[in-house]
Recover the amino acids of this structure.
């Protein structure tokens, strides 16, 4: 379980997260929505130790991981799947995936995860020798997700998987997130372009100017006015 | 005339092979850590003294084999510690690239003059691998040249293998290609930076051990070789290993032929001209990316 | 830093410098004071290039030496009066700056550092070699008889230290004002912003290139000018000026003064020249110790002396942010 108390994050002078409190129980799908540039990505990055200036506490299964550094956090079973992919451009798909299983934890289950990823992303198997920089946006996104899955994480922080992709990819992404969740993994998701996902969500949060507010489970949340406005423009 | 040209060609080839070793070390550090190491040449000189200490001063058994085998861990540790103590602390601040250049320049001054006060200002020589020669009529090849060429090519191939096949090597390449991505998959960035620096230090040390057999050990000789390695790096495209390889052989040849035809005085001027022209046409060097 | 404070610091500094010769008649002291003035300007030029225009140039000493040799050669081999040869040497150095800057300033930072430093390294074999001898560099020996500056039959040289000091002081103040104008100009301020934002820099594109080239040429001119002044002051030149310890000395000034914290380097020049003089008895160990000093200073002195002052003076706290990894 992920437990965040009074988390603040800063980029230079700007105060990107303000006293964020949040709980992500094991096995749940938690979705954060909100306008762009209001700190959703920063929250995911802060959890994974990718933001330099943070204050407050992020606890993972009762252990404080706020200042551990990304390498250790990954090894404890949290992974970040970046919105802009962050692949290794001059490496093949296979090497990208291999590096996804870099941590000691992932190494132990590499074979099993490899099979799982091959099953979820048959296209990547076909293209295993292609350089990742020569892939289309959608394929690269799939590779980024696949690489994240190779890390054998229990908690996947997925940042806008559908952003900038053709609508046809949305069903793929929905299906994959469903599969991930079925494996008992916890998913913390920033995404508001795939309506079906809200049916899956156990909890919904809104991020607004660095402040996070809890909107309850899907039943309560979908009747919330602020949420409706963000999601459907009503 | 013909034999002379062949001779010059061979010396260009030998120089090129050692330069490639040096330049690849430099470009690797730049590509991965974006730090520029001005003290690189001083590590080269340290390699020369390392060999001198073991071979001449203490006369260790096993000769060059011992030197090369002990040099790898020795230079790894020296490089690793230098990075951790001197460069890593600077990385936290905005203008660290500038500061790293200044610090390593200070380090090179410190090292060069320390060599001078410890070992004396006179040049020292270390024995060659072997004194044997091949002879085909007028035409002579030193076994030593062949050995130097072979060892540096083996080092290059070894490095290539490490980078493409081992876990740590792949982590180094990943960090060079995308530092954020590398962090995301759990590669410990700080360790990789230090390890890369250490690997480059090994290459510089090896370069010293190999080339000082021919060029003598000069306590102040570091800056000259550093400039050469640097020019090669920029010429080939900073961060591009293959670019450095090509550039090293091109410049090795240029140096050999210009030195032979016009005199050594003109080598540096020719080198700089070639560099300026190349950069005017291709601002990122021969094979630079982005 | 505000223009007012900058002028106040510089004014106070040069006022003190101007008064000091009254209290000392020692030739050694006057020599140190004169060298402080010269180095202060050369280091300021470097700071403008590196700290403000953000050009990673390592050719500062090279330009200094080019200016010195140019003026010496003009006056020795071609009989031109130092009064003409010094500004002419400045112009020659400025042209060199443009030649190097034209291809160079479009390149990424490290390439600029390389090309400029390579210029420095190439100067030694050039000046010592047959090409240099052909234009009158004196080869390895150098130029031993550079004539002093003569004004209305009065010679400013190493024997007339006080007048030369004041001549240098006047020139120093003039060029310092020029540099302040550059820093405080619209573009100088824009550069401070650029340094923080790569995107903004690229959006300025060609304009910033043109301006960088102008700044590069101007600082090369000033550096060459003071190199020339130095040549006619000491009366002899050799390629020893290009040795790494001179370079390091200049670099210590930058680190002590703080890069891009302008009047910092001026004060740092005074400190550095004095300390270097105090270290003279160490003889051959001096460069070694200077190297160690650079390492320690870079590691410990983040914003230079100005940074330290700012820390004490500034009322706004750094903010109660705990620094994570």
């Amino acid at each position: 379980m992920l437990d965040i108390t009074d988390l603040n994050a800063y980029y230079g002078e700007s105060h990107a997260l303000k006293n964020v409190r949040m709980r992500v129980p094991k096995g749940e799908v938690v979705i954060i929505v909100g306008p762009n540039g209001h700190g959703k990505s920063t929250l995911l990055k802060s959890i994974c130790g990718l933001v330099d200036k943070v204050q407050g506490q992020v606890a993972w299964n009762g252990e404080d991981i706020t200042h551990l550094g990304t390498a250790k956090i990954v090894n404890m079973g949290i992974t970040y799947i970046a919105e802009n992919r962050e692949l290794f451009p001059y490496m093949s798909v296979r090497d990208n995936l291999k590096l996804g299983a870099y941590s000691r934890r992932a190494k132990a289950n590499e074979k099993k995860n490899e099979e799982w990823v091959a099953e979820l992303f048959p296209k990547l198997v076909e293209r295993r020798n292609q350089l990742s920089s020569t892939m289309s946006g959608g394929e690269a996104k799939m590779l980024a997700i696949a690489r994240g899955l190779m890390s054998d994480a229990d908690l996947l922080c997925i940042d806008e998987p559908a952003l900038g992709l053709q609508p046809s990819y949305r069903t793929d992404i929905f299906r994959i997130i469903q599969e991930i969740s079925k494996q008992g993994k916890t998913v913390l998701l920033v995404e508001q372009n795939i309506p079906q996902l809200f049916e899956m969500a156990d909890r919904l949060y809104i991020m607004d100017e660095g402040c996070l507010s809890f909107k309850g489970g899907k039943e309560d949340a979908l009747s919330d006015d602020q949420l409706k406005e963000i999601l459907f423009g009503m | 005339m013909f034999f002379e040209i062949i001779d010059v060609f061979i010396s260009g080839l030998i120089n090129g092979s050692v330069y490639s070793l040096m330049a690849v070390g430099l470009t690797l550090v730049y590509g991965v850590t974006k730090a520029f190491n001005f003290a690189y040449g001083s590590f080269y000189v340290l390699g020369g003294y390392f060999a001198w200490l073991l071979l001449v001063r203490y006369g260790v058994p096993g000769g060059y084999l011992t030197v090369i085998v002990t040099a790898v861990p020795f230079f790894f540790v020296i490089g690793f510690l230098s990075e951790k103590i001197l460069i890593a602390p600077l990385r936290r601040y905005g203008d660290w690239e500038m500061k790293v250049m200044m610090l390593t320049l200070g380090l090179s001054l410190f090292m060069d003059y320390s060599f001078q006060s410890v070992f004396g200002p006179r040049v020292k020589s270390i024995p060659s691998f072997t004194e044997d020669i091949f002879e085909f009529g007028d035409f002579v090849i030193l076994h030593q040249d062949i050995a130097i060429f072979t060892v540096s090519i083996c080092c290059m191939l070894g490095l290539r293998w490490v980078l493409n096949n081992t876990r740590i090597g792949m982590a180094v390449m990943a960090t060079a290609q995308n530092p954020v991505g590398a962090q995301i998959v759990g590669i410990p960035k700080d360790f990789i930076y230090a390890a890369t620096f250490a690997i480059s230090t090994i290459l510089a040390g090896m370069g010293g051990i190999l080339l000082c057999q021919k060029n003598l050990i000069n306590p102040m000789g570091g800056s000259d070789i550093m400039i050469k390695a640097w020019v090669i790096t920029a010429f080939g495209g900073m961060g591009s290993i293959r670019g450095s390889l090509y550039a090293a052989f091109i410049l090795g040849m240029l140096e050999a032929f210009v030195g032979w035809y016009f005199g050594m005085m003109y080598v540096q001027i020719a080198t700089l001209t070639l560099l300026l022209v190349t950069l005017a046409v291709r601002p990122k060097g021969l094979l630079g990316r982005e | 830093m505000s223009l007012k404070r900058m002028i106040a610091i510089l004014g106070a500094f040069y006022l003190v410098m101007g008064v000091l010769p009254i209290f000392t008649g020692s030739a050694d002291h006057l020599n140190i004071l004169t060298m402080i003035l010269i180095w202060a300007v050369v280091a300021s030029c470097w700071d403008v290039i590196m700290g403000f225009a953000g050009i990673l140039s390592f050719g500062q000493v090279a330009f200094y030496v080019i200016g010195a040799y140019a003026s010496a050669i003009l006056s020795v081999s071609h009989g031109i009066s130092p009064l003409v040869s010094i500004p002419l040497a400045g112009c020659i150095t400025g042209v060199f700056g443009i030649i190097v800057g034209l291809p160079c300033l479009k390149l990424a930072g490290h390439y600029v550092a390389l090309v400029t430093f390579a210029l420095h390294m190439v100067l030694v074999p050039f000046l010592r070699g047959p090409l240099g001898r052909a234009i009158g560099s004196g080869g390895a020996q150098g130029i031993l008889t550079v004539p002093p500056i003569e004004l209305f039959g009065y010679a400013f040289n190493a024997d007339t230290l006080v007048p030369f000091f004041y001549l240098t002081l006047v020139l120093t103040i003039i060029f310092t004002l020029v540099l302040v104008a550059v820093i405080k100009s619209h573009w100088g301020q824009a550069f401070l912003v650029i340094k923080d934002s790569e995107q903004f820099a690229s959006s300025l594109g060609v304009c910033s290139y043109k301006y960088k080239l102008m700044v590069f040429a101007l600082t090369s001119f000033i550096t060459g000018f003071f190199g020339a002044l130095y040549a006619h002051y000491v009366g002899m030149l050799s390629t020893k000026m290009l040795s790494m310890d001179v370079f390091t000395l200049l670099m210590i000034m930058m680190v002590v003064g703080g890069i891009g914290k302008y009047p910092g380097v001026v004060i740092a020049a005074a400190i550095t020249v004095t300390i270097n003089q105090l270290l003279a008895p160490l003889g051959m160990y001096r460069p070694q110790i200077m190297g160690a000093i650079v390492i320690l200073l870079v590691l410990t002195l983040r914003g230079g002396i100005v940074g330290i002052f700012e820390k004490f003076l500034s009322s706004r706290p750094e903010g109660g942010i705990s620094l994570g990894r």
Strands of chain B lie at 133-136, 139-142.
